[in-house]
Amino acid sequence: MEFRLLHEDSSTKARTGMIFTPRGSFNTPVFMPVGTQGTVKAMSPEELREIGIKIILCNTYHLYLRPGWEVIKKLGGLHRFINWQYPILTDSGGYQIFSISSLQKTLEEGVMFRSHIDGTSHFLTPEKIIDIQLALDSDIMMVLDECCPYPVSYTSAKEALNKTINWAKRSRAYYRGEKAVFGILQGGTFKELRKIAAEELIELDFDGYAIGGLSVGEPYDLRFEIISFTNQFLPRQKPRYLMGVGTPREILDGIEEGIDMFDCAMPTRIARTGTVFTWNGRVNIRNARYKDDESPLDPLCSCYTCRNYTRAYIRHLIWAREILGMRLTTYHNLYFLADLTQKARQAIERNEFKSFKNRVFENFKDFENQEVNNV
């Protein structure tokens, strides 16, 4: 994998770049749709390509448990299995192990846990996580890490960070090959620990660096204070990935701080219940005001959904729980984020990112703090 830094904005830390992999290249900043189980929910690979998406994220934990990495390897790897020809980033599954599985024990050697599917016991080491991702044949692999909740004590955050650093060292010692491997910085909201994480992982010379352990309940301003603080220690010539973040506001604020890559399941999850992004704010299409609205979801959007369907029809589909409604809203939200990041890249190239972001925020309601309209 090669990261090529193309342009840095003159008034912010925003930057554009391009990541090259054997399966293709993609521009940064980029939002990666989440295909946890090997599918971006409600979307076909053809539709993702139509939108212009060049990289997706799949989850090692979920694919390890079902259908099993052996099955996927036998059938030719993850790309062939899901009919996706472009790059795939596989998350190590550390977050899922610590959040949705029944955790038994965290050891220096690895993590012992019970499957959330059938209760079976499993033990994963940093080396095993790499082996699974190699079997999946992903293009960008993530190391095993321990993600802390919020709030967390300094002592607990330090213990988790020490394990994460140790696991990163073992992962790097175990594999240095053609596949790209990203290190993950933990440390909670403690700046001292974030600095230690950056310094230790930079020594291991990973292909890229992910900021993990945020967007877990901490205040918004504190989140970006930590991001800004952490980024100053990361190598300029390596991609920076902010994990689990995907609202338009977060993406633009992250880009301003020099983040190159984002992922989040939220945009597709809220789409399936009728909430969509527009250039004028968040729209809850289930609201009664759209019952006979003949306008598109977003008059400023040129996606397939907005070119062909009305708010009234999509509202009807969502209320009727029709699959088509979920597909149309999901398509729109992914198109919106692809369009948002493309426009952000163009603004950076013109050294106008700050004014671009301000214009977007003037029109785009702060939907993170906006209550969903009563239906």
TrEMBL record:
Enzyme class: transferase
Sorted UniProt keywords: Glycosyltransferase, Metal-binding, Queuosine biosynthesis, Transferase, tRNA processing, Zinc
Pathways involved: tRNA modification; tRNA-queuosine biosynthesis
GO BP field: tRNA queuosine(34) biosynthetic process
GO CC list: cytosol
Active site: D91, D263
Annotated positions binding substrate: D91, S92, G93, G94, Y95, D145, Q186, G213
InterPro entries according to UniProt: ArchSynthase1/Queuine_TRR (IPR050076), TGT (IPR004803), TGT-like_sf (IPR036511), tRNA_ribo_trans-like (IPR002616)
Coiled-coil residue windows: none
E.C. number(s) listed in UniProt: 2.4.2.29
Function description: Catalyzes the base-exchange of a guanine (G) residue with the queuine precursor 7-aminomethyl-7-deazaguanine (PreQ1) at position 34 (anticodon wobble position) in tRNAs with GU(N) anticodons (tRNA-Asp, -Asn, -His and -Tyr). Catalysis occurs through a double-displacement mechanism. The nucleophile active site attacks the C1' of nucleotide 34 to detach the guanine base from the RNA, forming a covalent enzyme-RNA intermediate. The proton acceptor active site deprotonates the incoming PreQ1, allowing a nucleophilic attack on the C1' of the ribose to form the product.
Family the UniProt entry places it in: Belongs to the queuine tRNA-ribosyltransferase family.
Subunit-level organization: Homodimer. Within each dimer, one monomer is responsible for RNA recognition and catalysis, while the other monomer binds to the replacement base PreQ1.
Name by which UniProt lists this protein: Queuine tRNA-ribosyltransferase
Gene (UniProt): tgt
